[in-house]
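2024-03-11 09:14:02 DEBUG pipeline.ingest accepted 1 chain
2024-03-11 09:14:02 DEBUG pipeline.ingest length=488
2024-03-11 09:14:03 DEBUG pipeline.predict start
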Amino acid sequence: MRLTTPHGFRLAVGALAAGTALLAGSVAPAAAAPPQARQWEALQSELDSLVVDAAAAGVTMSVSVTDLSGWYGTESLLAGQDERLKAASIIKLPLLALLMERVDAGTLSLDTAITIPAGSSNIVGGSGTLRLREFPLSITVAELMELMVQVSDNTATNVLIDLAGGFDTVNAYIAGLGFEDLHLGRKMIHPALPPEQENYITSSEVTELITMLWEGTILSRESSDYIIALMAGQLVNTKYGAVIPREHLANKTGELADVSHDSGIILVDGREIALTTTTAFGDIPRTDADVFVQRSAALVYELSLTPFIDVSSAHPFNAQISWLVGTRITTGYADGTFGPVNPVSRQAMAAFLYRVSTGAQKAPECAAAPFADIPVEDPFCGEIAWLAEQEIASGYEDGTFGPGLPVSRQAMAAFVQRSVDGDVPAADCTTAPFVDVPTSHPFCAEIAWMKAESLSTGYVGGVYEPTRLVSRQAMAAFLQRLDTRLAS
C-alpha cells in the first residue's frame, strides 16, 4: 500500500502520537520537545544575522516563520521588528480568503461571470495583463482570482474588491479573524491618503493567515487547498521563487517603489513551513532588497531540506531520508540525528516494513508474545507480531526474534520479497544475479528478485555483498523503491 497525502499538498500534520517508536530501540517521551528544536534555534540566529546585514544595506526587514508540520514542534519565530508596512499585493490574500468563504457558504460561485465595462476605474496599470484586453469584458470569478494571485493583476484585484463589498466589508472580515494590522485602504494603483487609505500588513499576521489556510481553520479544506494551489502556480519568481523550486513553493509576492515582500508555504513533505518576509527601503534599487528576501527564503528552505542534524541537504541519501520523514515512516533518534550509517536492527526493519506496507503509523497492541524475547509490552511487539503473521519472518530456531540484531543485505532481501509476495517463494535462481551471489547461494532467489524488481542494483564491480549490514541510509533507498513498487 502506498502512503498518500490526505489532500493535494501535505501529509497529516502534527506530532506523532505519544509512544510512537523512533525506530531506534526507544519510545518517544510524551512531553519531550522535538530534537529538531536545535535546528529551529539555529535558524533564528541565522535570520537575526540576516536582518542585521539588511539594515547595514539600508533595508528594514522582518521575517516571520511558523512550523506547519510539527517536525519542529509547531514553533514560530520572528526576526527583526514586526513593523506595520505598506502591503503591496500581499493584501490580496485576505481578500481572496473572504471570497472563498462565500464560496463555502454557497453565496458565490467561482463560475460566476463578472462584466468589466469599458472605461471602468478598476482598469489600472502596474502588474497584470487584464488591462490589455478589450472591454467590455465578461470574465469568471475563478479567472479573476487566478490573475490576482499568479500575476498579481491589479485590475482583477480591483474588480474583486467591489465584488467583496468594498473596504469596510473586507476590513470587517480581517478584524473578525483577530488581526489588528492587516488593512485594506485603497484599490490597486489608486492614490493613497495615509493612514486609513493605504494598505498595510505585518509579517507575523500574514504568516498567521497562511497558517490558518494550511490548517483549514477559517475555510473548508477544499477552499483552503484552492488558495494554496493558486499560490503554487505563482508566476512571479523574483523573490522566494528565485531560490526555492516551484514544486516546493506556494507563495504570493508584493512590491512597491519602497517595499518588497513575499509570503508563502515551503512544501517539503513532512516539514512544511509558512514564512513571510517584509522589507522597506529608501534610495536603493528594489533588486537590492529582493536579495535579502531571497536569502531569508533560502535559509528556511535549507532547514526544510535538512530533516536531521547529521543529514545535510548535500547528503547523497538526503532525498531518500527526507522521503522517510515525509511519509512518517521514521522520526529518527531522540537526539535529533538519523544515524545514516548505523546498521538497521531487526525490530526497526519490522517497523519500517509495517509502515510502508500498511500505511499505518503503529501496529495494534500485542495480545500475546510473538517470540520468546518479545514480550507484549515491547514497543515493537505489534510490528514484529505482524511480521510473523505475514510469514515475513519466523525468527530463530530457539524461538527468539533477536530484535536488536543488525540486518544483513541478504536477510533484507528475504524480508522485502516476502513483504511483497507473501507466502509465494521467489523463483529459483537459474543465473547468478551478482558475481558474489552464485546460484547455490541460500538467498540467491530473493536477491535475484530484488534485482529484477529494481530494488537493488548492487555495488560497483557487479557485487551485492550479501553479508554486509544494511545501513539506515541504504534502507531509506530500499524502502522508497519498495513504496514505488507497491504502488504499481
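2024-03-11 09:14:41 DEBUG pipeline.report DSSP finds 14 helices and nine strands in the chain.
2024-03-11 09:14:41 DEBUG pipeline.predict end
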